[in-house]
Amino acid sequence: MFLLTAVLWAGPIRAQLPDDSHWFYEYGGPSPEPFTFALAGHHLYMGGLFLNVEGDTQKKNLTRFNLLTEAWERVPGISNAFNGGVWCLHMGDDGFLYVGGNFSQVGGVAASGVARLDLSTGSWQALNDPSPSLVTPGQANGPTNGRVLAVVKSGQDVYVGGEFTGPAGSPVNEKYIRRFRLDTRDWERVGGGLDLDVRALKTAANGDILAGGQFTGRLARFNGTSWNVVGGGVAGTSPGGGIIRAIQTAPDGTIYIAGDFDTVNASGAGVAVRDVAALRPNGTWNALAGGFDAQYIQSNGTTFNSDGVFALALDASGVLYAGGDFDASVGRTVLNLRHVARWDGTGSWKSLGSGVGTTGSQIVNCLAMGLKNDLYAGGVFNIGWGTLGAAAKNFARWMPARDFTGYIPGAADNTTSEISRADAANTRTLLLQTRPGTSYLIESSTDLKTWSTVQGSTLVGNGNLQGFDLPSTAPQRQYRFRATSY
To answer: How many CA atoms lie within 13 A of 444 on its CB side?
Structure first.
């Protein structure tokens, strides 16, 4: 009787769909929850409220995934003493990674909710105003009394938004949004400010700053002087009257927004749409087939209220991905979405196999595109075709051009030129930045089609740059490392 009860609690195993082979879950990941991604070179930085990554507590709340070795790495200055969560990341055009959250110091530097990491040196810097005049005293290193939830660099300005209010008595126009001038090292007010939480910031095609959140209108544009509601604003019947959590801009000027809302152009004619919409350059709204259904229905029939969309990503060809807490399109016309979906560009949301996660209490918090136009998802979820009670994975990769059946991570999809190179001092030595614990074989080819194993070429990765000396009898040809176990 006990065994039967346990099986019923775990829930039925979902039938695996053909496209599910395009998902890969076995990189390990954070425990418990990531909130944000930023791509910088061949690293995908990940921030959140997690105690460890694959059991390593020195990767607390901020870590990075090496897209070439497919391994997690520690970020300079981060240890298990890092005392605050990371809620937003932005890779600037100046070689700095901008980090926002609710910390008071990072990498040994006093920083209030926001800091930047020099990726060339691994050193941290505070956004420090040595003689603050436009912000309440005590906030020289950034805003206090609330989380930083969004950060974006534009020119010499770093815009910072969130739920911060500052100490008691802080002026209204210093709450929720402000900017730091990198050239003068001053914190400044941004126009007349915004009157409630800022959850998303993005630079528009013309250089204006777009903000989304819970403030009046929910979507606003700063033109360098003042804030103005965009597209008639957004509204909703959810608690707080709607919210925008994510903004993406396309090369043609289209602005995509996502969150928890049911109306756009709220101050005008009003357009019904749930949780995601597109504002075209001509000022008209596209409801994107109505968005996502208000209910999440699990395979056992249990129903949850959907919390909407938390993340957006655009691939190199302009394809839009959405992630969050949903399982179907409006009217349940498209099923199997389960926390992640793709807009086909013509009028329909498409599933990515079985999606990720199996319950309405799971979520995708962040999405990012990789180096191969592949999609990475982070949040709290298990395998999309698994059981209701399955263990969390929290990090997954979707690549429609790749079948991950039997895949072994460790060498940039086991391709050739990008994973190995000759040692400058000895052209008979191949070098590889290895994945810890992964075993490799060196293979050779004359036509890049047929590969054969080089005798005695087994290499066990230790996470460092490792070399393999080719036999003196080995001919000059193409070589690659192939991961064989991990």
So the answer is: 15
